[in-house]
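[Q] Does anyone have a clean structure-token version of this?
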Amino acid sequence: MRYRTSTKLYAFSLLIIFIIAAVLISGCAERDTEPQQVSTLTFGYQPSTHQIAYLTAKDQGWWAEDLSPLGVQRINDRLFPTGAPEMSAMLAGEIDVAYVGAAPFVAAASSGLDAKIVAAAQIQGSDIVLRNDLPYEGPENLRGLRIATFPPGTIQDTLLRDWLRDNGINPDRDVNIIPMGPGDAVTALSARQVDAVFLPHPAPTQIEVQGIGRSVVLSGEMKEDHACCVVVVSGNLIRNHPEIVQQIVATHVRATQYDTEHVDEAAATFAEDQDWDVSVVEKSLADWDGTWVADPGVIINSTVEYAQVQYEQGTINRQLTQDDLFDLSFYEALD
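[A] Here you go.
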């Protein structure tokens, strides 16, 4: 009888130990899965006037000022020549926030990038620039030419191919589209290695100022009010640190409004960051057909159309919807 009682007491004690251990392990697991405090944010951007809002907020000290109360003590950034490598970096978890074209984000989202567009940055603002010695009366004059533009999956490549098709020109057979970053494309045009380029500003103005070529088609003529650059934030931040995302959107809106009201300052900000002649940047901002915007509602339709075009072109292998691409809640929550 004593043996049975002792055995029961031992079994009961063992059960209590297991229960306590399970509770402790569960508590540790919950703590392990709790969101880690974000002390550093890394932004990605490109050398284009399309994305000056990021630079303005940086130079004015607004990123640090607005995000430090939320625990963000350090702001890093990385410069990318085009959207394709920028999105590769985001897929690898190397950047948290991207100022990037809508089209390369679409391509990355189709490949599993966990992120969403939370704000617009800009619409239109790219030009087809042709060598000065070549005639241009319409799209037919581009047939047989070598055209440098950003790599497949970017805004420029997607828009150019779709516009050529709309004008009866097969982009795979009737022209030679060569993927390049902006610096390489300008150099190639100057060396007559290509006949034309399709690039975002300020590169088209730089080419004209240097006497290398002339703008013959503005991207707004190719597709009116088309989405270009956007603000993309990682899914981790959206789910686990919505207060940080809310502030990122608010600061971006503030910088966008400031640039719109202080264009000369915006030009100087870009010129200093990229070591450009400020007079060329000022001329670019006077000549381009781009507009800085923050409201993501402005670009929803054209961004979803990019996804459809890329699917039809075979650039992506699945169709994407507005919900796959956008989180409008942060912009809509602004006062």
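[Q] Thanks! Anything notable?
[A] The first strand starts at residue 40 and ends at 45.
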